[in-house]
C-alpha cells in the first residue's frame, strides 16, 4: 500500500462506486424520460456500439436470456430495435438498433446533465487521460 488512502485500491473502488452511482442515477432518469426502463436503456446503449446476438447481449448486460428476450421484445414493439439473421450464421438472430433507437439513445445521453457537467469540468488533456485509463482498466486484456 502506498499510504495514500485516495489512491489505494480500496479508495479507488469507493470512488468508482460513487461515480457509478451518480452515472446510474443520471442514466435511469434519462431513460425514464424516454419511457424506458434502465435495462431497456442499457440495451440500447450496448447496441449503439453495433449489432449483437441475443446471447451476447444477455452476457454483456449480465442478465438471463429469457429476461433479455422480454427486453428486446418491448424495444422491438416500439420500433427501437429489430432482429435480423446473422450474416455468418442464419440460426443466430442479431439485434440491431433502428434509426429511431439511435435517436432515443442520443436523446438519453443528451439528458444526462450530471454526467455531462462533470465531464465538462475536465480539460481536453484530462479527458484524454481519463479515456486512456478507463480503457486500460476495463477494456484491455490482462498482461500475459
Strand line-up across the major sheet = 1-3-2
Order of helices and strands: HHEHHEEHHH
Largest sheet: 3 strands, antiparallel
Helix content: 55-70%
Please report the total strand number as a whole number.
3
Query: Given the C-alpha coordinates, what overall shape results?
Result: globular
Low-confidence stretches: none
Mean pLDDT: 91
List the total number of helices. Answer: 7
Distance between the termini: 24 Å
Broad structural category: mainly alpha
Walk me through what this model shows:
The protein has 144 residues and is mainly alpha-helical. Helix content is 62%, strand content 8%. The chain has 7 helices and 3 strands; from the N terminus they run H-H-E-H-H-E-E-H-H-H. Strands 1-3-2 form a 3-stranded antiparallel sheet. The model has no long low-confidence stretch (mean pLDDT 91).
Defining key terms:
8% strand; single chain; 62% helix; 144 residues; mainly alpha; 7 helices
Quick overview:
The chain has 144 residues and is mainly α. The chain contains seven helices and three strands.
Amino acid at each position: 500500500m502506498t499510504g495514500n488512502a485516495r489512491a489505494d485500491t480500496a479508495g479507488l473502488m469507493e470512488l468508482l462506486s460513487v461515480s457509478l452511482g451518480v452515472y446510474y442515477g443520471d442514466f435511469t432518469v434519462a431513460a425514464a424520460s424516454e419511457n424506458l426502463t434502465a435495462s431497456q436503456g442499457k440495451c440500447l446503449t450496448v447496441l449503439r456500439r453495433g449489432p449483437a446476438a441475443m446471447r451476447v447481449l444477455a452476457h454483456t448486460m449480465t442478465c438471463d436470456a429469457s429476461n433479455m428476450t422480454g427486453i428486446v421484445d418491448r424495444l422491438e414493439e416500439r420500433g427501437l430495435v429489430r432482429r435480423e439473421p446473422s450474416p455468418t450464421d442464419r440460426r443466430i438472430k442479431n439485434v440491431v438498433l433502428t434509426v429511431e433507437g439511435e435517436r432515443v439513445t442520443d436523446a438519453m445521453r443528451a439528458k444526462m446533465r450530471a454526467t455531462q457537467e462533470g465531464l465538462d469540468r475536465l480539460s481536453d488533456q484530462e479527458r484524454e487521460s481519463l479515456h486512456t485509463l478507463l480503457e486500460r482498466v476495463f477494456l484491455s486484456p490482462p498482461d500475459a
